[in-house]
Description:
The complex is a heterodimer of chains A (264) and B (234). Chain A is of the alpha+beta class. Chain A has helices at residues 2-25, 51-80, 154-164, 250-254; strands spanning 84-93, 100-109, 114-121, 129-133, 138-143, 148-153, 184-193, 196-205, 209-216, 222-229, 232-244, 260-263. Chain B has 1 helix and 14 strands; from the N terminus they run αββββββββββββββ. In chain B, a hairpin with a 4-residue loop joins strand 2 (41-55) and strand 3. Classes of the chains: A alpha+beta (264), B mainly beta (234).
Amino acid sequence: MKYSSKLSAALILVVFLVLSFSVLVGAEDLPKPVQIKVNPLLDSEQETETFDEKYKQAMSEISISEEAAAVVDSIKAVVEGIEDLSLDISITEMRERRNEEVCLQLKLSVEHRLARIEFKAPSAVRGMIMVADQEKMEVRTFQPVTNIILVRGLDDASKEALASLSLGQDLTQFSSYLDFSQYNVEILEKSELEGVTDFLLEVDAPGEEVWYVRVKDDSWFPHEISVYKEDVLQGTMSLSNVVTNPGLSVEDLANLPDAKVERM
Amino acid sequence: MDPWLRRLVVLSLIGFLFLVAPAQASAFEAEDLPFGFGPHGWQAGLGLSQESIKPKGLLGYEKTGIGGYLTQAGGDEEALSWFSGHKQVIMGNIGYSLELFGGNTERPILSTFFSSSDPHVGAYGEFSRMYGAYGHGLAGEAQFSVTDAGAFEYRIIPYVQFQRQGVWRFSLSLGTSVGIGMSYQEPHEKVKLDITFVNEGLSMHILLSLSEHPLTLGAGLTQERAQLFIRYSF
């Protein structure tokens, strides 16, 4: 069915919601140790090289790793300092015949334990609004086609999203979605424009996936994440209009159109 | 078709609808007592309905249910009945529904309005597509009379729909009868209004649910008849 592909793309962003929310709620957890990929410095062939060459190579490796660690720590510090957040997300999923794009606005609050998604595109989901309430452990979804608000358990919704992505149902593995310190990280590219440095990180994510994360040092909030699996691009998520700690109220997050409520 | 055979067909359909009902339909979740006045005088009866809803993916759901009512007029009129089974599937902004029905009253407009007709069986299907606050859809209805005449009626109903303080729908009716229609549904479905202008003229129906009481009030007006009803839900 034509819609199913769009649905699967939409599911990715919902996972992002759950993940991001879990990150923020779990921000007080102890940070996990940084695991920076460092290539072997010496092997049998290199033993024949001069000591100076070995030293320069080793220092080169270490300097990159330290910088990557600093970038990862900066991202982590920003994410852990977020009390509430508003941003626009565009997810492009690569399909066999064509790409599918889902656009939405995400708002979430650690204090209120609420997260809100407003779908902007494609038309198959435009106008739908989801509000996840971790306090009540429920998800409220406004369905324009029937003009009702459907209420279901948060656990069920999370499982649906995770199962659809074949990522398993263990939320703990996503508890630090934007905390890349638990993965091997390398800086692949660094460019500077008008005093702002843009980093391209390679993150060895679980499930044989590799994430390419772009982050600028003016915000230290990732603005693009591309997911590759077996060297094939699976999708790209662009984050824009990021506003950290805007002081979102419960009304801002939980307000839904006036409609009949039905519980599942 | 012989009368006994016609009755057998209708009864078989009713039995089938109950058989395909979900197992949890052993107890009806909604019962009501309709009491009304119309072309057949005073009428009273019993309405039953059962519906289950389950998620379908993350952004969709599926509803399956049965419902119907049986009423008896004050005089020697034949009992009026109408039963249906339905399934509705919603996936994001796309919705499908199918309803199979049978009885000897017309397909109810806005819940329950008693209008006798020949015993019949039929099907109603609908496809809806929204684009946020506006959308369109296509509905179709076919009805076979199980009388000697064996009449067949059908309608195809394209419509547009938008949301503004409720749901507004403007439709065309093409087929055995031709006309136009408009309906409104208040956001909480407390007030529903339906106006159609078809071959035989204008008809208006309104339904009002009282949130403080388990009562629903309805009124219908066509060129030939007017009817009122009150339904007590328990």
